[in-house]
Amino acid sequence: MSQVKKSPETIDDPLVIAGLEYQSRLLIGTGKYKDLDETRCAVEASGAQIVTLAIRRTNIGQNPDEPNLLTVIPPSKYTLLPNTAGCYTAKDAVRTCRLARELLDGHALVKLEVLGDEKTLFPEITETLKAAEELVKDGFQVMVYTNDDPIVAKHLADMGCVAVMPLAAPIGSGLGIRNPYNILFILEEATVPIIVDAGVGTASDASVAMELGCHGVLMNTAIAHAKNPVLMASAMKKGIEAGREAFLAGRMARKRYGSASSPLDGTIF
């Protein structure tokens, strides 16, 4: 069954992922901050309810003598989204998801990403499709990072992924949405939430994604590498909200020529 509303949407409609409702449409990562306290402050300022963490790089209890991320991002307050960052094969990604499920007491919601190379961090689509199929069959609720190919996005949704997450630009690039038309093609065929993942650099980029009709945006570097991460997290929250409102409001038509803000038609001189 489709999780995406086809009837007219309202500002109060929640983001629905795997049957759960969220008021925030901003999802953020927990890597690249200077310390756990900055991580906590940025997450709080963002208003995010879904928080992603890299299982292969983050301690959530597997190393008892090291600081534990869960002390500042408690599962009682946030929906944790363990991801497979750093995986380059379907086998490694599936293994990492199973480790996350074990560490988090049966947690099934995961973000799948299988990378093609270390330079671009573009997704390896063949391995992504392979891993997604296996994880869905194994009972995972898969949110999947992919390229902005509408055909691949449809395959992943049809396969049973609970959200499709096309890149806007290369991970960590901050270039913004490079191909809005592909994102629009993906949205036209969407049967699950479409969440832009990777490439956002500032609040206006997040707004553009939402103005296109995306259901949410996931980001990490844009906040963590800002000069003031906590302030940027707050800006991203506002950018997401403004873009969503603008999408629902419906922008004016683009015209070749301007028109007076106070029309002269019918005016008596």
Beta content comes to 15-25%
Order of helices and strands: EEEHEEHEHEHEHEHEHH
Which blocks of ≥5 consecutive residues have pLDDT under 50? none
What is the straight-line distance between the termini?
61 Å
Residue-averaged pLDDT: 92
Query: Measured on Cα atoms, how large is the radius of gyration?
Result: 20 Å
The main sheet orders its strands as 5-4-3-10-9
Helix content: 25-40%
Record field, number of beta strands: 10
Shape: globular
Number of helices: 8
Provide a short characterization of the protein structure:
With 269 residues, the protein is an alpha/beta fold.
Give an account of the 3D structure.
Helix 6 (203-212) links the parallel strand 9 and strand 10 (216-219). The protein is 34% helix and 15% strand. 41% of the residues are buried. By secondary structure, the protein is α/β, with parallel strands linked by helices. Helix 6 packs parallel to helix 8 (229-249). A five-stranded parallel sheet has the order 5-4-3-10-9. The chain has a three-stranded parallel sheet with strand order 6-7-8. The protein is built from eight helices and ten strands.
